[in-house]
Amino acid sequence: MSDLKLFEDLIALAQTGSFVRAAERRHVTHPAFGRRIKALEAWAGAPLVERNRIPVSLTPQGEALLKTATQVVEQMGQVRHRIRSSGSEA
After folding, report:
1. Beta bridge partner(s), residue 57
2. What is d(CA 25, CA 42) in angstroms, rounded to the nearest whole number?
3. What percent helix, strand, coil does the chain show, rounded to 5?
C-alpha cells in the first residue's frame, strides 16, 4: 500500500502546485513529504517534479505517471468500496 500512498502524494502535489500545501493536505511534514516524492522519483527512475518553478509543476514523466496514478487510486477506491459493501451484506 505504500506505493498507493506515494501515488496519492503525487496527485496532491499536482493539484496544489506546492510541496507545503500538498504536505498539509496529506497530513505530513513538509520534509517528510519531500522525501516521499524523492522516493517516488527513485522508484520511477526519473525526475517527476520541476522544483525550480512556482507553482511546482510536473515533468513530462511526472505527467505520465500522474495519469496512471490517478486511475490506480480511483480504481483501488472503487474496489475497496465494493469489498466493504459486500462484506456488510454477508
Report:
1. 50
2. 23
3. 75, 5, 20
